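Hi there,

I know you've been waiting on this one. I reran it after we fixed the sequence typo, so this is the corrected version. Both the input and the resulting structure follow.
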Amino acid sequence: MNSLRSRLSVSLLLAALLVAAILGYLTYHNALVANEALFDYQLRQTALSLRDQGVVPDLQQDWNGNSEARDVVVQIWTMNGRVLYLSHPATMLPDRATLGFSDVDADGTRWRVYTMIANNRVIQVAQPQAIRRDLVAAAALHSLSPLLIFAPVMAILIWFLVGSGLRPVRQLEQEVTQRNAGTLDPVSEQRLPDEIAPVAHAINSLLAKLRHAFAVQRAFVADAAHELRSPLTALKIQLQVLERAPDETAKISALKKLNDGVDRASHLIEQLLVAARTEATEVTPNMQPVDLAETMRRTMADVFPFAESKQITLDFDAQDNLMIAADSDALKILMRNLLDNAVRYIPQGGTVKAKASYGEGKVTLVIDDSGSGIPEQDRQRVFERFVRGESAGQKGSGLGLSIVKNIVDQHQGTITLSDSPLGGLRVTVAFKGIKE
């Protein structure tokens, strides 16, 4: 049974029936006690009404054995045992009685008897227990009749009340169903119950994130299409130059330029894919304990051939066991982009120095280069996609620092750009450290 309305209705109905059963039992028990007391009171009052009666001669002869059932039996005798009156001569109660109320067995029947002494006479009024039980049970069951009507009425009321209570859920469902990728307007949070309002708020928060994600995606696709148009156009032109080359030397030169253009286009496409994977709003990093220093050493080894081709010196100084919680692959991409930018944008024969340390609960990575740096007014803009600068004749994709910023944000770290003592740019990245 997956219906919330059905489950709530059945649960509430069972709870109501349980309460009704308990109330019914208590009502039945109280009715039994009350009616027993009432019948005892009637026996006593009957006895009291007979205490002043005189002797009626031959009153026994008025009794007819075929009269109404023996619901009440009266017998009166003197203190010396002489019978003065028997309402039912065929029914003889014991001539030795207990004053007050008692239960007596006579003629195979159990009787409820009230006995009293008045005017030197013993007066007994008795009633069969079976008749009393039947009358008491009938009265008690009669008192339960409202509860028997209560069950179906309560079932109907519960069904409609639960349905009415769940109406805001159905309205919220209808509003959410109307949303699609092109219509992500927030759902209405007005007049919602306190239990449902947080759900609507959470849905609106999710819709806002989706709107932002789709907007970022559309902007990214538009920017990527614009950025790819230029290298593809350049490749087409270089291919035409290759086709029209008049001699072998011109063909080799055109082929080299075409190969360089393909490399640049490949690098741009690779950076676009990495940027798409590292969008801060799209990716949840797989956080694991990572040694930042060891990761930096491996990344620097990967960049070394490129640096060696430009006769650039790489240097790295770090403490041991600089542990942080990070996505290892994303951290490598961050380091690779920083080192690649540093090597790419400094003149041949330059220097790149990196240092990693732990302090104040943070692991800090600092990368200095001897390039021309980035003007202070442009240091915030370079974290935006496709914002590039030109240095030492190198053209970039404008995605490297944007990718780095996304990864830093995913790891809740910080990144700052400043002037380097080497004359170029200093990049400082800080992450929360893990103590061994």
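Quick highlight: The chain is about 50% helix and 20% strand.

Best,
R. S.
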